[in-house]
């Protein structure tokens, strides 16, 4: 029997190089701003999608969204109360948005998971979590086979929210209020390629309005569903 090599929880050359390449690309893009957060690499860019593109994606989410589950599949009903769905990668707009994210970050399209849409109505939220996989999780051996650890997350706000709905990074003491069309991109790894606990984040409850986002998580290797 061969032992599983659990390398997703420690520093890694591959993940370090992914971090460096994306950081270099975003740092030289004048349209992209780095958010000042010690210990976390996080960037924003306004007007990444236009109003029509946001509206079309919201309509797709409205037609397909189901109550969200946690990655572990656990039925923790008060932890992630939004509705969500995978968006059809063969749809022209969905594939254009994925390509645009890859062009912005330089990340390979085949490392990206399916674009996921999410809608938060009044009071709905996604409590504090990390997007990287804990190597102690029972699903980690399966994730290793489908592309390994998650490196960067790209998330686009598809609607403004009157009150609440901010993306909160509690260890870094800042939150980002949703701005329609804005993309937020962060590295879930530290510069050395080890998981970064400071990437912990939450979607704060919506107090007024409806929040829509799309999220794309990138793996360190080619993602196979
Ligand atoms: O909706 C947000 O602001 C955060 C969403 C999120 O954390 C995720 O999709 O992984
Ligand atoms: Fe997340």
Molecular structure report:
The protein is α+β, with helices and mostly antiparallel strands. It has a single domain, classed as q2cbj1_9rhob like domain (Jelly Rolls). The protein has helices at residues 13-27, 51-64, 92-105, 140-145, and strands at residues 33-34, 42-45, 66-67, 83-86, 116-120, 126-129, 150-157, 163-164, 167-169, 174-176, 183-187, 201-203, 206-208, 211-219. The protein has an 8-stranded antiparallel sheet with strand order 1-2-11-7-14-5-4-3, with helices on one face. Strand 9 and strand 10 form a beta hairpin. The protein starts with 12 loop residues before the first helix and ends in a 6-residue tail after the last strand. The model has no long low-confidence stretch (mean pLDDT 94). Bound molecules: 2-oxoglutaric acid (AKG) and fe (ii) ion. 2-oxoglutaric acid binds at residues 118, 126, 131, 155, 167, 201, 203, 213, 215. Residues 118, 126, 131, 155, 167, 201, 203, 213, 215 line the site of 2-oxoglutaric acid. It comes from Sphingobium tyrosinilyticum. This is 2OG-Fe(II) oxygenase. Its cofactor is L-ascorbate. Keywords: Dioxygenase, Iron, Metal-binding, Oxidoreductase, Vitamin C. Residues 111-220 form the Fe2OG dioxygenase domain.
Which range does the strand content fall in? 25-35%
CATH superfamily: q2cbj1_9rhob like domain
Please tell me the overall pLDDT: 94
* Level-1 CATH class name: Mainly Beta
Count of helix runs? 4
Small-molecule binders here are:
2-oxoglutaric acid, fe (ii) ion
Q: What does the radius of gyration come to?
A: 17 Å
């Amino acid at each position: 029997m061969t032992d599983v090599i659990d390398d997703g929880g420690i520093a890694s050359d591959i993940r370090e190089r992914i971090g460096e390449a994306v950081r270099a690309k975003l740092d030289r893009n004048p349209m992209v701003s780095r958010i000042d957060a010690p210990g976390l690499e996080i960037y924003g860019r306004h007007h990444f999608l236009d109003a029509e593109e946001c509206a079309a994606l919201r309509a797709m989410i409205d037609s397909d969204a189901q109550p969200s589950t946690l990655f572990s599949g656990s039925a923790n009903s008060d932890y992630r109360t939004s509705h969500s769905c995978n968006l059809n990668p063969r749809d022209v707009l969905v594939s254009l948005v994925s390509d645009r994210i890859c062009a912005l970050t330089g990340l390979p399209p085949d490392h990206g998971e399916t674009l996921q849409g999410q809608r938060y109505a009044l009071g709905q939220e996604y409590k504090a979590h990390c997007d990287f996989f804990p190597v102690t999780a029972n699903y980690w051996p399966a994730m290793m086979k489908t592309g390994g650890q998650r490196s960067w997350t790209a998330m686009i706000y598809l609607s403004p929210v009157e009150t609440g709905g901010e993306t909160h990074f509690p260890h870094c003491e800042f939150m980002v209020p949703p701005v329609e069309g804005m993309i937020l991109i962060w590295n879930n790894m530290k510069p050395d390629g080890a998981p970064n606990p400071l990437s912990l984040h939450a979607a704060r409850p919506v107090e007024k309005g409806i929040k829509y986002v799309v999220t794309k998580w990138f793996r360190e290797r080619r993602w196979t569903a």
